[in-house]
Records
---
Amino acid sequence: VVGIAVGVLYPQFGASLKPLGDGFIKLIKVLITPIVFCVVVLGIAGAGDLKKVGRVGLKAVIYFEVVTTIALLLGIALAYFFHPGAGMNIDPKSLDAGALSSYVDRASQVKSQGTVEFLMKLIPTTFVNAFAGGDVLQVLLVSVGFGCALALLGSAGKPFLAIIEQASHVFFKMMFFVVKLAPLGVLGAIAFTVGKYGVASLQQLGYLVALFYLTVIIFVVVVLGAILRLAGFNIFKLIRYLREELMIVAGTASSDSVLPQIMRKLERMGIKDSTVGLVIPTGYSFNLDAFSIYLTLAAVFIAQATNTPLSTVDLLTILAVALITSKGAHGVPGSAIVILAATLTAIPAIPAIGLVLVLSVDWFMGIARALGNLIGNCVATIVVAVWEKDIDKTQARRVLDGKVKVDLDEHVEVGLGAAPGKAAA
């Protein structure tokens, strides 16, 4: 609220506050890779069962593909039900392509990247480079290999494991201090957006933005709610449990800003840290539910706005291409527009220049994307944990019911997740 007020009353000053939001995100990203490394290594080495690690990974991938497909189909269905672009009658030739040049260039690189290139990109040039580049997938690969090696070493690897455990406590303590700066980061991000684009930026293409938010809400409440209910939990209680992290994400439009806290909170629920450490980092690249909705909804919107008819084959092509391009979008600069551009170039019928229509409201849609992706990955972790019997359901229900006060700064035993005795009553 303060950020919006500053942006409206003092637009130039509001626009100058951009470094607050950028700085907060950078501080978070500095700690993400070492925390992911520590959590994954401790989880795998602490579990000791490498077959179990592979089993958890396979179940997570199966879940990701099924739920992502549902999200893509929901985006297409609601776009055709509400027709957000109908009546705009946009002539593609009248749109300015200048703002899209950099996005289209990166999109061509994404599209030309085959399976082999994608897999090769997962392998860092050096051990240190995985962390220096900030690529979560590269860090995850290194972490899994490191954790497996420590597990095979047995007792000989325990001294090193103890060092990593102590390091994880240091990184989480640093994160505790960074999170205290969240209000300033959120204020800066919102004040900049409103100050730079004006109040009108909150109204441009409002119908599309509103429909996207509605679609994400339906997906979270109905689809994820039903899935979580089958697992034995309530989606609204989970959202209440995550409310502080969701508020930070809503202000920064980035789920990166709460990755370490989310992992720690899921552990405190009673989920084994080995499962949390594998599912959450992987899900940040392969389980982007709200992002998937955005791809199909935006593609159909652009087609409607430019009066471009889509055949059944076109829709199936959008679905198939989006299922592929949505993977690994995390970490790509301007990922939403870049991946959408890469998706549209595979459907010649839709004019890619139509991306200009959604570019102006991308930040606002980014808020819903980040929120939906975060909730989706939390649900995925719970479901895989239930599937694998890696969750203390009694502890989880007590936490979600508010009967247990969770302290994120408290110690967690290696490989045990959040044992009931580790949360303060």
---
Amino acid sequence: MENAPSLDGRPSTLAVSALSASSALYHIVESFQSPPISIRDFLRDLRALMEVLTQLIDIVGTATDIDPSALVFTLSRCSIACNEFKEEIKKQLPFPDDGSVSPQSWARLRYMGGNIDIVRHLLCGYKSAFEVIFTFTNL
């Protein structure tokens, strides 16, 4: 099942899974030509999430003061959300040869009952949660 994160359940494995899922989502969205501003903003926020996940992978492997159970759910949901949204893009958007998608097609794209902004806010929430972990590990 593509949406399921690794069954390993360790935060380090789940962080790698979330990074892989967010990277795959980034590449599929980036492949479209001339995206509207909302999609460019989405890509910027997705890049920021990927940077935080990269740092998290390093920290989880070495930090002894992180409660791994606090990460498992959020990392799993982050991975699942990225995979699900990638699949929604594949289902809902046309893939023309020239890679261009109309702004109207992007505007019609739906996930969890909302538009791309819902996904942006969701991914920003995950990023913020991971940043809180950095704050506590660096105190």
